[in-house]
Design a protein that fits this description.
Elements: E1 9-12, E2 16-20, E3 23-27, H1 29-39, E4 44-50, H2 56-59, E5 64-69, E6 75-81, E7 84-91, E8 110-113, E9 132-135, E10 142-144, E11 150-152, H3 159-162, E12 167-171, H4 182-185, E13 190-194, E14 200-204, E15 207-211, H5 224-239, H6 242-256, H7 262-274
Parallel strand pairs: 1-4, 1-8, 2-6, 4-5, 8-9, 9-12, 12-13
Antiparallel strand pairs: 2-3, 6-7, 10-11, 13-14, 14-15
Helix pairs in contact: 1-5, 1-7, 5-6, 6-7
Length: about 280
Amino acid sequence: MENRSRPDYLIIGHVTHDLTPAGTTTGGTVAYSGLAAHALGCRTFVVTSVGPDFDPTAELPGLNVHIVPAAETTTFENIYTAEGRQQYIHHRAADIEAAHIPPDWKQAPIVHLAPIDMEFDPALIHTFSTGKIGITPQGWLRKWDESGKIGYKSWPPDAAVLSKAAVLVISEEDMPPGEPLRPYREHVPILVRTRGGKGCTVYQGEECYDFPAPQVQEVNPTGAGDIFATDFLIRLHQTNSISEAAVFANQIAAHSVTAQTLPEKMSLIKQTWHSH
């Protein structure tokens, strides 16, 4: 990725403030994926919406950030139990529209659409005519009740949207076990289902490939799926090899869960990348 006059990696979605027992931290796919792309040497640009309590220079260091002003920053709470992760949304920033994307940024070779709370319409994908587009659709698979408790919402596959994407990455936590992937596979060239510590399954046409993840001592799994998606997109762009992308993404994501904080995770990504 040698052309430094434009983004190498453009990511769109809400960054968050995450409530944890240790205090408030920066979170959301934009933060984990964007900083991971930066750690891998990409010139990373972000379109997001935050409130006045968010400092992009401090919370997204090294990233070029375009902000849609909002009254509040999106705020999540992740609770991990023996039955899995439970999430709550307490605040939500403003919607993101095509007009908010700077024209020069639309030519990025890699575009990552990363909704976390339905902050933009899937039709936003039609804003881009070039580049490899990856989607992590978790924000289109969520609904929440009056308490903010997040649950599953079906997202009917849209051929017009999915056919524009190169890769769709869906976590097994984002969809119920019995929800069929076939309707999505019919429209997107590559679908990846991440399976936490078990690795990932990659679907391409009628082919299906399993890639196990390295076994590590898990400290904090938050953001691992986001990091995986970014690593997969970047390596696929570099090599055009599904196996290369899957093995690389599994390795980096696995290392990330051995660290507690976001800065520690990014430091590990840099170390792993330089030793790769």
